[in-house]
Amino acid sequence: MKWIIIALFFTTSSVISQENFSVKNNYITWEKEFPSLLSEEEIYTHLQNHPALRNLAGKLSGRSGLITKNCDTKGTAIFLRNNFHGYVTISISLNSYAVKIDDISFQTNLIVDLGAVETSDQDTKIEQYLLRKSDKTLRSNKQAKKDLECIDQTLTSLFQFQ
Could you tell me which residues come within 8 angstroms of residue 114 by beta carbon, excluding any fewer than 6 positions away? Predict the structure, then answer.
């Protein structure tokens, strides 16, 4: 019985993290609503105080700085070892605020010369890692679920203003 409860917990947390991701027009978007009684000024203060979000302060939308993961990357894909950024939009309502991030890209830290094969130093879009090319849906294998869970955990903690 104990193992069934543990299995349900892990299954539920994976489903919840994937619920915050959607695919529209072949692009992956992360979106989450946070219950809050913070004023717009208090949200601006939180944005101003975080290095990855400073350029959003005063306008509630724009490209984030580099976001460092705060999850256990053991068992995740190698791309998750790099920092990432995206285009953030925050909308504020009476008792909550919603955060939407699209155009998520991972920083490339390593350039390797493999003779005739060259690697690129350009950031790599999340779709290249987590979007099925055949039917344009989120990958759902164990690896992809762990990757999405890590990104979700990082973004949730980043935007959960206290």
Answer: none
* Domain assignment of residue 71, given as a range: 2-159
- Map residue 8 onto helix, strand or coil: helix
Cα separation, 62 vs 82, whole angstroms: 21
Fill in the amino acid letter for 80. Answer: L
Check which CATH number belongs to the domain holding 98 and give it: 3.30.530
Summarised one tens digit per residue, pLDDT across range 67-123 is 998 888 888 888 888 899 999 999 999 899 999 999 999 987 655 556 655 566 678
pTM of the predicted structure, to 2 decimals = 0.81
CB 66 within 8 Å of CB 56: no
Read off the DSSP letter of residue 40.
Answer: H
Question: In total, how many domains does the chain have?
Answer: 1
3-state secondary structure of 83: coil
